[in-house]
Amino acid sequence: MELQHQDDLKHAVAALATRNADALDRLVWTGVFAAGALRDQARGAVLDQARSAGIYPASIHDLYAARGRGEVAPTFTVPAINIRGMAYDTARALFRARKALDAGAVICEIARSEIAYTDQRPAEYAFVVIGAALREGWKGPVFIQGDHFQINAKKYGADAAGAAAEMKAVQDLTAEAIRAGFYNIDVDTSTLVDLSKSGHEAQQALNGGLCAGLTAFIRARQPKGVTVSVGGEIGEVGGKNSTPEELEAFMTVFTAALREAAPGAEGISKISVQTGTSHGGVPLPDGSIAEVKIDFDALERCSTLARGTYGMAGAVQHGASTLPAALFDRFPKLGACEIHLATEFQNMIYDHPAFPADLKRAIYEKLRTAAADERKPSDTDEQFFYKTRKKALGMFKREMWGLAGPARAAIGATLEEKFTFLLDKLAVRGTRALADRWAPFVAGSFPSIGAAAGADGRAHEDVTGLSD
Ligand SMILES: [Zn+2]
């Protein structure tokens, strides 16, 4: 599928200008799977075309701030979709659903861990999302987010050198992501909350202080005219449920630390809380997902406090994609500002009747050895593969992008249906005008590609234990 020679590339670029869909598909492939100059030229051509079509990466900060001031009603919950496997087809399905519902308040995101195991550096991810928007005739702001830019507590706690190296890894990734057009970053230092200390402020001290430091780091690097939307997190997802008192303690620490690190700098726009869910859900021995009890009360109280006292958009719900369908319309009613959705889309791809059985077998065979160290003695095969198959998305990226046309179309249609359902329940239908109004194009903010965005040659990062 990808173009092999300069001549072919030139022809495709010429055809792209006449909105030739096949040429666009081949250029996106080339921008992902080719190397060197060919790859960079393909990326450049697609991004140029997207820019002239009125598509641009943007920050949701101003929309969230308007919601915090009460100028935008808190009646919708922004879905943040983690696009992992078959990224182009998945993103295309999302933009089709968005277009049909006129849904502007939607985020595409990828976590530090996912960047590694799905083999998608920020520049590639932004390129594929923008390419998909162009393919589906989208126009206007595209919110691309770094999710769980998380500190590994074990590495941070090892010693002073370990702490410095871990901070630098997150800073480097953040800088790389901003260069690629990620104007929304979820800082996650919640792994460093220390519940053994007495008093909420002491528990949140390291979390709030480091989050402020990373916020200052982001403010110093964001493009002129753009306020990157920064999210904080007060309780590690999968851990103890959050409370409004913890939110207050976090904000006290964070605000003081930010004032010191970057006087006058804009703070965070939202806060992630723990409500009882866990990333990916908990698979039972037969592979089905255990039901969870969500602390809706905590979510609502933290959202109200975040808006009323701190001018944020509200609280953010994680680990939500595998929840029962009947729950989704509760999130907008409770004032939750954002919800993170990931694993279910990956489940839908792997378990789709059109997904080739022989490829799935090959993937599972590979996982038996490649992910053997993650196997608990008590795991059934169903539990083991459910938990580890995300790790195969990078190893089998080319095979999954390269499924036969009818299989890709069938999977894309199923994803589109699911996205449509979720966007509707989360009440973001008709939010396009809001997004356009609060996230207009900022001259000079369109990311440059190639060497400047670069860093695709980075060594593979060990992300064991990090959230997604
Ligand atoms: Zn999450």
- Reported by name, the CATH topology of the largest domain is TIM Barrel
Q: Give the uncertain stretches in residue-range form.
A: 451-455
CATH class of the largest domain: Alpha Beta
Looking at CATH, the homologous superfamily of the largest domain is: Aldolase class I
Description:
The protein is α/β, with parallel strands linked by helices and 468 residues long. The protein has two domains: 1-52, no CATH class; 57-355 and 403-438, Aldolase class I (TIM Barrel), CATH 3.20.20.70. 51% of the residues lie in helices and 10% in strands. The chain contains 20 helices and nine strands. An eight-stranded parallel barrel has the order 2-3-4-5-6-7-8-9, surrounded by six helices. 53% of the residues are buried. The site of zinc ion (ZN) has 7 residues, from loops. GO terms for molecular function: aldehyde-lyase activity; zinc ion binding. It holds the Pfam family F_bP_aldolase. This is Class II fructose-bisphosphate aldolase. One of its GO terms (biological process) is carbohydrate metabolic process. InterPro entries: Aldolase_TIM, Class_II_FBP_aldolase, FBA_II.
